[in-house]
Amino acid sequence: MIPIFKTIKFKFLVLFNVFVIGLCVVLGVLSTNAMIRTTVQVSQKDALFLAEKAVALLDVDLFSRLSATLDSSDPGYLAACESLHQLKTQYNCQYLYSMFRTPDNRFLYIIDGSSTPDDEENFSPLGSEEDVSTYGPEFQAVFDSGAVYESGLEYQEGWGWLITVATPIKDRSGSIVGIVACDYDGSALKAQIDSFTRIQILITVLSVLVGLVFIYFITRLIFSPLKAIAEPLTEIAQGAGNLTVQIPVHKENEVTYLASCFNRFVSTLHGIIGGIRDAVGHLRIAGQSLRENSLVARDSLGKFIETVDEIRGLAQQQDAMTDGTFNEISDLEKRIDSLDTLVSDQANELNDSFSAIEEMTANIETVNSTINRISDHYRNLVEESEQGKTIQEEVSTKIAAIMQHSEGLSEANTLIQAIADQTNLLAMNAAIEAAHAGDAGKGFAVVADEIRKLAATSLDQSSSIKTMLDGIHGLIEQIVASSRSSTESFTGINSKIGEINNMVTELSYAMAEQKTGSRQVLTTVTGMKTSCKNVTSDSAAIKGDARQVMKEVEALRRLTNEIFSKADSTKDQIAEMRESVERFMNATGENENHIEKVSDIVGRFII
Where is the Methyl-accepting transducer domain (predicted)? Predict the structure, then answer.
């Protein structure tokens, strides 16, 4: 139940009464003020006319003389008072008097026509003082500016309600010498105003009462149908939401039209609530299905994150393996570079060895040629030594020839010794290179060892030849010294020459073998050079393949990094999707709660 002071009816009554009372008060005040203003203006005009007429009636010289002497025995004083009194009586004025302001700002009565001199209560004698402080500054300003003073209806202590008008008295020079004041009685006017005010109050009260009666019927006409409408509405609002309730419609007016519209609204609401009830049922089923699908999506996203983590772990393993492969290929490339350097150095050394062996072979051929010539000389020497047995006479000549040949043999022996030394040096170098070559140089090491042995043998033979040549020189010297022992010497010479011939033959065979070994060494070195070239070519190919593999490994590393990046991005996106699904699930739960609330609310309606 709505409290009475909050109802529209109560507010309407209060506002209407306030409006009526306010309107009556305003109209009463305005009319009263207009009446007072009009009455006061009429009285002011009459008082001003009377005051101006009194100024014209007064003798200014008499007034000035009385103001100066204040002598009431002046023969013109009483006559002047009588004249003003007659004028006052003629115009029904309550008080008519004249005043003078002394230099010390005191206000004195001069000629008073308000009453006769024998009326002590109402007559003011000449020179009596008046307190005008309550009159206001406008009254005193008449003495200063000469402006006419007109008061309204005012209450003056001791005099009652008055309307006062004062006008200046001027001498012939225009100077203000005093004033004439006229007071009209305002008691009757005040009584009229009070009576008029009471009438206005009575009219206001009657207007309020009439308005209340009028409002009673108006509100009854308006609010009674509204009350009839409110009862079914209250039943719908406070009950179980019975939408079968209808507002009865008996008459045709604005309120009943509103009731008809409400009945149509309730019928429409009946259909809407029925549709909402069905939709809420379907919405509940859809919400449950949506929540189940959200749970499945959340679980799937969790598994998806685990799969992405596994992919990332595999990518990390692949990245580690790629780094290991990259490092191993880098080491392989460095080793290939080292192998290229070693093979290049070995090839250069083989080229040097090849040149040295070629030179040695050429020297061996030269030595062989020399040995062949020596062998021929020795054969000739044998023949000549045999002939020398029979031809002693040619000994001297042959000795000279032998001397020349022995010198050639010494040179040849020196050459053979140099060749043997060089061959020994080459054999040592070949053995060192064979040791450097490892297993591939074992065969070459055997050949180098044989060459070294041959060189050693050649040195030994060369030493022997040198010794023999020294002996030949000694024999030749002995032959020169003594030809007697030529026969014995020829025998020794033949023997020695035979031995030398055998040695030369052996040396020839050894040089031939050395030549063959040198050619085999050349063949081996040539094969080694070919192998070095093949190794260099293969290492270059391997190096190119290694670089290609490194490029592919680098590309694989980039792909692995992209996999890392894509996996992280995918994981972040899945995490965001999972958060969205979580929020969606929460929203779905809230939606189910709201659906239940809506279902409860809709279920309350009776349709």
Answer: 321-543
pLDDT in tens, 55-69: 888 889 999 999 999
Q: What is the pLDDT of residues 501-545, one digit of tens each?
A: 677 677 667 667 766 766 776 676 676 667 667 666 766 776 776
Q: What is the pLDDT of residue 82?
A: 92
**Adjacent-strand bridge partners of 97:** 112, 181
Per residue in 85-127, pLDDT (tens digit) is: 998 888 888 889 999 999 888 999 999 988 888 888 888 899 8
Q: Which amino acid is at 263?
A: N
What are residue 178's DSSP bridge partners? 169
> How many C-beta atoms lie closer than 10 Å to residue 266's C-beta?
19
Mean pLDDT over the full length of the chain: 75
Same topology, domains 30-204 and 333-532? Answer is no
State the Cα–Cα distance between residues 244 and 236, nearest whole angstrom: 9
Q: What is the pLDDT of residues 389-442, one digit of tens each?
A: 566 556 567 666 666 766 666 777 677 777 767 877 877 787 787 778 777 767
Report the CATH number of the 30-204 domain.
Answer: 3.30.450.20
List the beta bridge partners of residue 109: 99
CA dihedral 564, 569, 574, 578 (to 10 degrees): 120
Task: Residue 110: name the closest of 96, 124, 122, 126 by CA.
Answer: 126
Does pLDDT of 308 surpass 70? Answer: no
Given a contact cutoff of 8 angstroms between Cβ atoms, the answer to whether 16 and 215 are in contact is yes
> How far is 531 from 525, CA to CA, in rounded Å?
9
CA nearest neighbour of 45 among 117, 115, 150: 150
pTM of the model: 0.36
**Two tokens, residue 113:** 């026509």
Whether the Cβ atoms of residue 461 and residue 510 lie closer than 8 Å to each other: yes
Task: Report which DSSP code applies to 91.
Answer: T
How far apart, in whole angstroms, are the C-alpha atoms of residue 333 and residue 358? Answer: 36
Enter the tokens of residue 188.
């009757």
Candidates 185, 182, 155, 181; CA nearest to 169 is 181
Domain boundaries of the chain, sorted by first residue = 30-204, 333-532
What is the rounded CA–CA span in Å between residue 98 and residue 52?
A: 12
Query: What tokens does 94 get?
Result: 């309550």
Return the structure tokens found at 47: 């008082």
Q: How far apart are the first and last CA of the chain?
A: 26
